[in-house]
Design a protein that fits this description.
62 residues; four-stranded mixed sheet; 40% strand; globular
């Protein structure tokens, strides 16, 4: 398989739901999630307006 090198950006966020709103409000897109992780945290994958992919992990407060 010929796969180009890439970096993975994983961000731990304190306000998970607010981060999702901020991504969408600034031109980013949520690709999947939020997905519950066993133990109580959540994850989601997204892409910023320039096309860089990233993942967020954090607890949903409230």
């Amino acid at each position: 398989m010929n796969v180009p090198p890439a970096a993975a950006l994983l961000l731990l966020v304190w306000l998970f739901d607010a981060a999702k709103v901020a991504i969408e409000a600034t031109g980013g897109q949520v690709l999947n999630g939020p997905n519950e992780i066993p133990g109580g945290d959540f994850s989601m994958n997204g892409v910023d307006p320039q096309g860089a992919e990233f993942a967020l992990v954090g607890a949903r407060k409230g």
